[in-house]
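Q: What would this chain look like folded?
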Amino acid sequence: MGFLLKVKNIFLKNKNQIYLALFLNYMVLFSFEIGNLSYRSFQPGENLAIFRFFLELSRYMVYNGLLLQFALLLMSAAVYLAFTCFISAVIVNAVSRTINKYPKLINCLKSKYFLIIFLIVFSGFIRFSFLNGGLFHHDSFQIAIAAEKTLEDWNLHGIGGGRHGIVIVDSIIFYFFKMVMGHESAEFAVNFGSALFGTLSIPILYLLLENLFENRFIAFSSGILYSVSPIFLSVSTFAKEHTLDVFVVLLSLLSLILGLKKANYALIFISGMLSSLLIFIRFPSLLAVFSALFLIIGFTQAEENLHSRNKIKKMLAYLAPILILSSLYLVFESETLSNEVKSNFRAMPSGIFGPVLISALAYSVDTLVVSLTAAGLLLSIIGFVLLFMKKRRLFYFLVIFSIPLIIFYALSKTVSHRFFAVPVIAFIVALCYLIYLVVQREPYAGALILILLVSSSFFSIYPVIKFRHEFSAFKDLAKMVNDNTNPEDSIVILYGDDTIALNYYSKTPTKSCDFNPDVISIKSFAAQLNSLLNRGLKVYISGGCFGIGNQEEQALFLGIMGSNFKGSIVAEYTSDDYHRGAVKPIVKKISMLRLYSKKSQKHELESLEIKY
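A: My prediction, written as structure tokens:
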């Protein structure tokens, strides 16, 4: 017992140095994990692989009688541990002296304005430094084209599902770059817009949480962690409506909470106006209205009850613009809404509903793991439990804010990690609440946990945003086409969503390989291609067209095409799948074929190794 007591006293006396030493050692291991180091048994990306390397090396030395070398290895490990402990002690002492010597500086660093400025600078730097090298997503091209056409004819152009809000905003940004810097293409402007609103969302999140929790640490840590979360950082680097969506949702809630605190009906009305604009940006985010109503009901003065006149007035001030604009939208854009609903939901037999739902929910959990890591998600759940025990209203607010959106996307026809950019905020806030409680007891430990989560989040998405900053798959494809075809005598057949990309970067005509996976539809498609060949055109077709559908449908397509054409593989290009690849890239090589008539001496299509 006496020995254990001594160990405990030593730990308590040096706990900050121990925390920092553990942190430094983890960072060293983390650098091994993400680095490209060619050790004998080490593969980059494997957890704790460096330990296996030293274990195998030790076994090799002992089994072969290399005791002197083994002793030197142990001594080296001891020296390394002693060195990290020494460095930790130096850092802890330096920090303690700085805090004691410069209290005014520390207070300045803790000030609200410094924290906001830091969040803006930090968030802006990691976004604008990694803007995509081109347009990444199918919708990115639609937004760029709509912005260019809007400035051309001064008529507002929408994209799929309407989404006029993102077009208006990006048209304004493009107008600035066109007038000031002479840009003819909206490519840079629309990417810039995503990074801009991704940056501005972070200080808005800080102000919202500071007003909700009345705690700067929770607000700052949530802001910094959300800024580097893989999902939000990724969508902040390419043109899409997600960052504008997050910005408007957060700004609406901030306006509402300020209006409730000050009993300012103008701010509450503005909050409702902002919420109503979500119809024209990303309509599922209107589900955040439920959390706003909870704020009105639960965060007004304690003496007011649900039926008080003040609460009813506040609810009317908030809901009025939403109801008015929604009604107008239903009247004038009913077809757009109908198409958007059809694109999000599909009828399915009752027998497969259960498995599909389980699969969708599993994907939702995977999204949270991607954004927080498995350990971070576990800590976040613990944070939710503690919020339920200590701050129940805030717990309910975060649940109402996130769960409806998660369920909506889980039940949608198509789902991608990037869809969860809004609901993941609640899990980050719960995680940061737990870190705050740790900081209250162990400041160094809590701060190091936060730094660890921030660094691991950033480095997990860093290879993705760096890759897309330096390489644009569609630009690369267009360059290949431009260098090897003549727009006057060639046509390129591509997967449907890819044609808009090639049309943007190239003048060579395109056609989408849209067909139903049945004999009649595929034969009709083949007849269209035969017609193009008969006109004397050089017909190129992407291998992606041969990969549509399941294996049986692919075999049917190849069989019918093989009975109508011969061909040769003329090139390969890199595909960067944008449908589900925002966080987990799916990069692969795809063949580009040239089709010939069946009478030619070229290869049978079935004999070619077509990559798709």
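The chain has 25 helices and six strands.
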